[in-house]
Amino acid sequence: MGALDELTRPACDDDHVGGMPARLVATPASTGEAAAVVAASRGLAVVVRGGGTKVHWGPPPRSLDLIIDTRRLAGVVEHAAGDLITVLRAGTPLGDLALGDQQLALDAPAGATAGGVVATAASGPRRLQYGTARDLLIGITVVRPDGVVAKAGGKVVKNVAGYDLGKLYTGSYGTLGLITECVFRLHPRPAASVYVRSTAPAQAVPAILAAQVAPTAIELDTATGELTVLLEGTPAGVRERSALIEKLLAGEVSEAAPGWWGRDPWAADEIGMKLSVPLSKVPALVGLGSALRGSAGAGVLYAAARDITEVERLRAQCVRGGGHAVVLTAPAEVRDILDMWGPVPGLAVMRRIKDQFDPEHRFAPGRFVGGI
């Protein structure tokens, strides 16, 4: 128990996950220390915590002995500007990155860490142009639940060597082990950007895409009735394209994003959902009258549901349209009676992967699909 004695402290009142309190908190500062903690924690139920911005997402763990906090496991390991890649430790806050004329095009709330964004597969408005964490992650270092350090991917964008652990760990909610380093693909920082704000309906999205203006994001907010397009590039190119979209949508050009841009639509006492549907089904989803916000251009919307009936209505609409809906967060009084994940294809495969990586089922037990 040496590593636990050296690198842990007793948990305090704030050290809980979904209301489940922990007994201990570990704070490793390197992959080696993290591996030592994991190896020494055999028999304990473990949850990994980054900045804590999404620690309330998903069901609470069935049991919790140890929180591994990654915030000391932070910093830029490497920035290879010529190769357009960066290597980040998992606890690095994405908002603190300074990469010169390059960017990691992941929209993350203040305090969110590299590892946390990967573990929850979080994404924001710019996913339409740049993709999600799953697309931008090209290499990963993890500590398996048995304490063994594993690496996959590499430091070049087209590397295909090795088993693609990155895709397995993306969106796994910490159920397969501890992420300690991430290798990301970067993009040049645009010289200019503008927002075209309008009250056009969701039905206008196909026309925007057909205009071939290469939008970085197309976002809608049903509370304000706004449809907003983000355009990036050279100053001359942005001026030309924004004039076209301004005319198409009868909108107005703004240097600033609307206040709702990239923010969750739900309050603390509401149920927060992520809805994914084909683009053609977005208008029908908007037509249900729920409070929705998100990417009308990518078919990924976030909803504030008032009760379980509304959750079921939104989920049914998504499933009928060939999509899916998950509950990300919910008040404690309804969380236990909600089916947070809904029907998910491939559950049997996911169970086999969990059994292979974590046969004792001690990493984030019960936090993932089907009680994994």
Automatic annotation (TrEMBL):
Entry's Pfam families?
FAD_binding_4 (PF01565)
- Statement: the UniProt record of this protein carries the keyword Flavoprotein: yes
Domain of life, per UniProt, equals Bacteria
Annotated ranges, domain FAD-binding PCMH-type:
17-189
* InterPro entries cross-referenced by the UniProt entry: FAD-bd_PCMH, FAD-bd_PCMH-like_sf, FAD-bd_PCMH_sub2, FAD-linked_Oxase-like_C, Oxid_FAD_bind_N
Sorted alphabetically, the keyword list is: FAD, Flavoprotein
Q: What is this protein called?
A: FAD-binding oxidoreductase
Taxonomy, top ranks, is:
Bacteria, Bacillati, Actinomycetota, Actinomycetes, Micromonosporales
